[in-house]
Design brief:
Layout: E1 2-4, E2 9-12, E3 17-24, E4 27-30, E5 33-40, E6 43-46, E7 51-63, E8 66-68, E9 71-79, E10 84-86, E11 89-90, E12 93-96, E13 101-103, E14 106-107, H1 113-123, H2 129-132, H3 165-168
Amino acid sequence: MTVATTDGTTIIGESILISGSLAGDEDLTVRGRVEGTLTLTRTLVVEPTGQVKAEVQVKNCIIAGVVVGNVTASESVEITREGRMVGDIAAPRVIIVDGASFRGRIDMGEVDVGAERPRAQAARPAVPARAASRPALAPRAAPAVRSPEPRKSEEARPAPAPVPAAIAARPSVPPAPVAMGAVKRKVIVKPRK
């Protein structure tokens, strides 16, 4: 049985099977079965008894039953704890509740990384002046090449390469602090019982 309610929602009853192309400008609640294509300008609700095997294009979609097919939503897709879906989701907001079953891919649109980059660079503190004024390190001496012949005593070993004077005389300077940027933390305080 298909029922249209006063609040603009159409309900497809549990004993109804609709096969083909379905389009509308009001909310649709599916308790029965829909197969084919489904296009709505409003919200689709698939209740726990509902089964949709279709390509779906809607504004919002709430899945508590079974959906097999791709869902494209202009606002959001939510799969509840009872919901099961096989297919791809394309929506700017996707909610998959713990316990839901989903197999497919999710596309939440393009992320504009370039717009975030200048703001992140502006938030970084400047490098301290002392880090920029450190003397350059002298190049290391090349390690001694060992001959393939075995050594007969410890005295035959070459002396270790001397430490360059520029490195030995340099005072120990602690490393510059690492810039972490803006770090947001959420603290939850639970009262004692």
